[in-house]
Amino acid sequence: MQRVRAPALIFALVLSLPAGVPRGVDWQPQTSGVKARIRGLSAVSARVAWASGANGTILRTLDGGTTWQPRTIPATTALDFRDIDAFSERLAYALSIGPGESSRIYKTTDGGEHWDLQFANLDPKVFLDSMAFWDAGRGMAFSDSVDGRFVVFTTTDAGRTWSRVVPDRLPAALDGEGAYAASGTNVAVSGRALAWIGTTAGRVLRSADAGKTWTVAQTPLHTGKSAGIFSIVFRNASDGIIVGGDFNRPDEAVDNAAVTSDGGATWTLVKGLRGYRSVVAWSRDGRGPAIAVGPSGSDLSIDNGRTWSPVASEGYDTLSVAPHASIAWAAGENGRIAKLTIHD
Question: pLDDT tens digit string along 230-287?
């Protein structure tokens, strides 16, 4: 298996920001070895990360991104893996999107040498968008609504079985309401049982019992045919951020970010993001700055998403921060991938 080395050049992009703002973000372009659009990322540590995308693309690095190795699932070149959740260099789940049988969940426990098809969707109306896990054995996946009802699947046995949450335990969906499968981050979890889902209609579904029952809250984000919530993140049970915008107007920043301090019951609109953002994440497990990225650039916040400062960067679709660290990876179209260090 041939390995491709990343360029040695590191671009240090330092921000001109007020005192107290992080010094900047260092972006190190890397070579993924693929041309497919990458929309799934999962950073396990500063050295181990997984990536996924179109044309059945699944990649893994064990050396901080110096080399990225294909971890391809056989006979999946027609699938688009928009989400990947990894727990070690050996254990990862990969989710493909699409109607009917295109929506699948695979799992590997040997670093991608072998993959088990754990969720094989047969419902032609189901369209998986993303997934999230409280731990390696308990997780959930979300689909666009079907016949006016939200569709949530949960697993408590490491993916061996995925069970649909009884529709009556979820609020009714609005007409055509679902989620944007843009970065694998429209589902967030925290602690042992908290979960949130951001929808195309600018609403946030909330569960406090690991997905068994749900409530819904309206947010002030702009919505439309190609606008709504694209990403949601929580750093604890109370403090969260949602970002979005209109992906057909990536340079437009209209009501595209909001924050909560009460666990998602209420949301306050904030300004400062310079365009459509497809993902938001916190560094250092929520103790460091938050960063939002999209096809038109990136922005940084040190006050829990209330204000944002621009970061000079290329455009990306997805981002994942390594646990307990300020190291992350961002990725996007044409196999573009970069490692970044967020300076406190």
Answer: 999 999 999 999 999 999 999 999 999 999 999 999 999 999 999 999 999 999 999 9
Contact status, residue 320 vs residue 328, Cβ threshold 8 Å: yes
Predicted local distance difference test score (pLDDT) of residue 23: 54
In Å, what is the CA distance from 218 to each residue of 168, 203, 221, 228? 19, 5, 9, 11
Q: Please report where in the chains the tokens 């900047």 appear, as a residue.
A: 24
This model's pTM is above 0.85: yes
- φ, ψ dihedrals at 235, nearest 5°: -100, -10
CA distance linking residue 52 with residue 63, whole number of Å: 17
Topology at the third CATH level for domain 23-343: Methylamine Dehydrogenase; Chain H (2.130.10)
pLDDT 10s digits, 191-243: 999 999 999 999 999 999 999 999 999 999 999 999 999 999 999 999 999 99
Domain boundaries, the chain: 23-343
Question: What is the C-alpha separation between 58 and 71, in angstroms, rounded?
Answer: 5
Contacts of residue 222, defined as CB under 8 A and 6 or more positions apart, other chains included, come to 202, 228, 244, 245, 246, 254, 255, 256
